[in-house]
Amino acid sequence: MRVILAVLVLTLLPLSGCISTTSYSDSQEFEVDSTEKPGWSVGDWWLYTFETPQFGEDTARLVVTEVQEDEGLYMLGISSEREAQRHAVINHNPFLGRVTIGDLSVYENGDPQPVFKFPWNNGDSWEFLLLGEYWSAETTGSQYGMPLVKATSENGHSLEYRFNGENGFIDHFEWKDSDDNLQFRMSLTSKGSDYSGQVWFIRATDLKDRLFEGPIDGEATDTFVDSGHPSGIDFDYYVFFIDASLVQGGSGTLSVKDHVGNSILTRTYTTGTQSQELATIPSRSDEYTLEVTLTGGQSTLHFMIAGGIENFWEL
Description:
- 8% of the residues lie in helices and 52% in strands.
- With 315 residues, it is mainly β.
- It has a 10-stranded antiparallel β-sheet with strand order 4-3-2-1-12-11-10-9-8-7. Strands 13-20-15-18 form a 4-stranded antiparallel β-sheet, covered by helices on one side.
- It starts with a helix and ends with a strand.
């Protein structure tokens, strides 16, 4: 019996090295359907579900509206005017507007940013500016036949996204802040070509982003100046977003006035108000004063406004 057991042990020893208890994730393999940059044509579209903490979920198509060969640029718009307005003031969708033909870099602060790194290679690392953050990115592997990129910012934010080579654009993109709170997510639903319909892109400049917390003793004031878009073009209108959250017993007012005291925007909030408002108002180059009153120990008013230049296409 001892001889038989010894033989069994010796027989199994060489096999023990072939039995692994380690669980290998997709990130340790790199098998992708395509490593090359795709080419786009006018009318190509991608249907996405977008998710933000401000607006929840929405669905719209990103559409190629122009191919400017001489400038080396694509123009990318969106099929929802409302979503275009949201991007103008919240700045949550970085993939609207100009995209370079050479490497699909997207523009931020007037400069192309290399969000993608063609051809895709496992372990590649690079940096770019996006969503107001400086990112250090790395291709960490692949998932479902797509390269997987993970990035971290100087402020502790994180990005994770996949590029679908077969469909020619992003399959999934997720941005979280330093507290792991979701800021923006987009997920691809379907893809097509020869889009027919209306498409928008609003080229915007932030004018003011201010969170007021109650209670405010008297009245809080702030100012902002509309000197037009940095390109020298006057804005077509302002896009504003107000998130009002008032506790029971709280109240508030908000007013935006020009330099001679004319109100271009006024709002009054009653006790218990929980509301979000996204809208546009006419623009005029001027210096503006923002005035807010707010009562209630945990009441808040978040005011954001941006100047917008509207681009519209009928494909």
